[in-house]
Amino acid sequence: MKRSVLFITIMMVSVLGYSQTTLKGPKAKNATASELAANSSPLTFSPVPNNLKGPKRKNQKVWKQSKSYRKAMHIRKEEEILKGPKAKNRKVWKD
């Protein structure tokens, strides 16, 4: 009985501690770019395609692939900041 209560207490404390680290509400809205990107991982892709097909490809284990051929991809988006009437009349669905 003591072990189960102790285990449940430890689990609740760890969940509460983890939930406090994520940004929510006004803090997330006003966060800087570095704070938002603190927990993100880069997008990776393989420049050399895998030639396996069919069931062999489906049953291939991800952890057995070598990571030496993966490249990190960085995306940078530059937008022109509109001001005045152009910003007011901008059609967001055409971006």
Unreliable stretches (pLDDT < 50, length at least 5) are none
Largest sheet: 2 strands, antiparallel
User: What share of residues is helical?
Assistant: 25-40%
Number of strands: 2
Q: Which descriptor suits the 3D outline? A: flat
Q: How many H/I helical runs?
A: 5
Spatial strand order of the main sheet: 1-2
Could you tell me the mean pLDDT?
Answer: 78
Our Rg estimate from Cα atoms comes to 23 Å
- Count of domain modules: 1
Class derived from helix and strand content: mainly alpha
Biased composition (Polar residues): 40-49
Region (Disordered): 40-69
Description of the structure:
- With 95 residues, the chain is mainly alpha-helical.
- It has one domain (2-73).
- The protein is 36% helix and 6% strand.
- It contains 5 helices and 2 strands, in the order H-H-H-E-H-E-H.
- It has helices at 2-19, 26-29, 33-36, 55-58, 85-88, and strands at 43-45, 71-73.
- It has a two-stranded antiparallel sheet.
- The radius of gyration is 23 Å and the shape is flat.
- The termini are far apart.
- The relative contact order is 0.08.
- The mean pLDDT is 78.
